Amino acid sequence: MAVFTIFQAEDSVDEEDVEEVSILEETKEDLKRIELAKEKQKTGPTIRQADLSNIADEDIVTSDPFFCVQQVYKTSPALVLEDIIVDLHQELQEAFVEVLDKLATLISQISKHPDDVSLRVLRVNNEQLYKDFVQYPRAVALLKYARFKLKHGDDIKEILNQRKCSDVLEHNIAVGHGSVTDEYFLYLHEPDMFGDYRSWKEWIDFLSATSITLDEIIRQYKSVTRRHKMFDRNALEEALVLSGCARPSLNS
Questions:
Q1: Cα 67–68–74 angle (5° rounding)?
Q2: Please, is 176 exposed, middle or buried when counting C-beta atoms within 10 Å of its C-beta (0-12, 13-18, 19+)?
Q3: Can you give the CATH number for the domain in which 128 is found?
Q4: Is there a domain that residue 2 lies in?
Q5: Torsion of the alpha carbons at 138, 140, 142 and 148, rounded to the nearest 10
Q6: pLDDT, tens digit, 9 for 90 and up, residues 108-139
Q7: Which SS3 state, helix, strand or coil, does residue 131 take?
Q8: What's the pLDDT tens digit per position in 199-222?
Q9: Count: domains in the chain
Q10: How far apart are the first and last CA of the chain?
């Protein structure tokens, strides 16, 4: 029995040795294959790598409200209402009426309640403002056309303090949980009605006329799209003509 046990142990050792040799050989083969693959990568065709260098800038464009507004104020003249409306339609398409209606409502409310300063002080970093307007460059251009100016918080603070309306600024800052020195605003200045009535009258008439024109464009656009079941540029051009906002070139 003892002899048999000895031979059995020897057999077991031999099997273990064989297994160790086999694993070693497989490891060597794996290493050879890895080295061969590396050499092929070096000598094979070059694989074009994705260019990720612009991702950070693209994120800023889409997610930084101040950057969005600043770009429009730097690059867009925003002088001709019709051009802004055409560009806005091209930019938004199906959301065109909804966004234009919100812009028209804001301008209408200001023209009806010019003494309500809160309508004329829009914090750029306001989340709702971004959803409604700031994310759309042409909507921002329409605010610029309506004579909103981009102002730093310190400038707004000084203006509102002079008009004894600092509570409006304090509310805006409280909502944003920030500091006035960290904020920018879109601000629509109201001329002094008593000190310069002519300028004030021109300002209020301009806002009223803009509001009426936008409302008419929306009404005509809805009518044209219902009648012809089309939502393309032709529908907008017809609406602009019917509203009296189109230039002669759009009629040709």
A1: 80
A2: middle
A3: 1.20.58.2190
A4: no
A5: -160
A6: 999 999 999 989 999 999 999 999 999 999 99
A7: helix
A8: 999 999 999 999 999 999 999 999
A9: 1
A10: 114
